[in-house]
Amino acid sequence: MRTDRGLWAVADGMGGHDAGDVASAKVTESLLRLPIVYGLDNLVEGAVDELGKANGELIALAGADDRTIGSTVVGLAIADGQYRCFWAGDSRAYRIRGQGIEQLTRDHSLVQGLVDAGMLRPEEAENHPNANVITRAVGVAPELKIDVASGDARPGDQFLLASDGLTRLVNDDELVREMTSHPPAQAADALVETVLSRGAPDNVSIIIVKLT
Predict the structure, then answer these.
(1) Is CB count within 10 Å lower at the N or C end of the chain?
(2) Taking Cα atoms as reference points, which of 205, 89, 75 lies closest to residue 139?
(3) Under a CB-based contact definition with an 8 Å cutoff, are residues 191 and 170 in contact?
(4) Is 142 left (phi over 0), alpha (psi -120 to 50) or beta?
(5) CA-closest candidate to residue 192, choices 149, 155, 156, 163
(6) Helix, strand and coil percent figures for the chain, each rounded to 5
(7) pTM for the whole structure
(8) How many angstroms separate the Cα of 142 from the Cα of each of 13, 16, 18?
(9) Half-sphere exposure of 32 (CA within 13 A, CB side)
(10) From CA 139, how far away is CA 119, in angstroms rounded?
(11) For the segment 58-112, what is each residue's pLDDT rounded down to a tens digit?
């Protein structure tokens, strides 16, 4: 979290516990060391550049250990009434406005590819046996592709960044209910408690940003 810069991100490591911790830490550290720049697009461009460097470092590290060391990433930058969202993998960003919710990201996953190809219905995707197979992440391919989405950001809007440990267990209606009923910190705690009460098969990371 770099609230002073208007920049937030969640990274979800993969490749086993130790490797996943290394990868997610590498990703978040790369964003923390971003140089000072002016303008939202320049900030996102710098973030993408740093993620590219982290990608190369993780590939080199994985080669030395003969294993995959990777991490998803979803980032959010906000300035001057606009947002930019950037991501690789299946960690997601949402915008909650009033009682409405919009998913800003599109999963880079095997099941999302099947949905896009018309081979799987969206309601079948969450419980698909390969739901955890992602097709893009930092540290898994020499060329890292980062998608970017943009839009307006208004006072009262809330943005949620989360790993799939949350979004696989908590549906959109539940996200809206918690986030519109509680301040951000309490909403985040309540969402984590919901995940824990449902068995928490995966780790969960959450950032909630509310504009005032």
Answers:
(1) C
(2) 89
(3) yes
(4) alpha
(5) 163
(6) 40, 25, 35
(7) 0.94
(8) 18, 20, 22
(9) 9
(10) 28
(11) 999 888 777 788 999 999 999 999 999 999 999 999 999 999 999 999 999 888 8
Task: Tell me whether residue 156 is exposed, middle or buried, using C-beta atoms within 10 angstroms of its C-beta: 0 to 12, 13 to 18, 19 or more.
Answer: exposed
The encoded tokens of residue 169 equal 């267990």
Residue with tokens 């130790």: 18
Give the per-residue pLDDT at 30: 95
Kindly provide the residue ranges of all beta strands, DSSP E only, lying in the chain, ordered along the sequence. Answer: 7-14, 70-79, 82-88, 92-97, 100-103, 147-152, 158-162, 206-210
Helix axes 172-181, 184-197, angle to 10 degrees: 140
Burial zone of 166 (CB within 10 Å; 0-12 exposed, 13-18 middle, 19+ buried): buried
Token code pair at residue 33: 């060391």
Residue range 154-176, pLDDT digits in tens: 999 999 999 999 999 999 999 99
Note whether 159 and 94 are within 8 A (CB).
Answer: yes
Note the pLDDT of residue 15.
65
Contacts of 128-131 with C-beta under 8 Å, sequence gap 24+, read 131/168
The tokens describing 30, both together, are 């790369």
As a residue count, the chain comes to 212
Q: Give the number of other CB atoms < 10 A from CB of residue 145.
A: 11
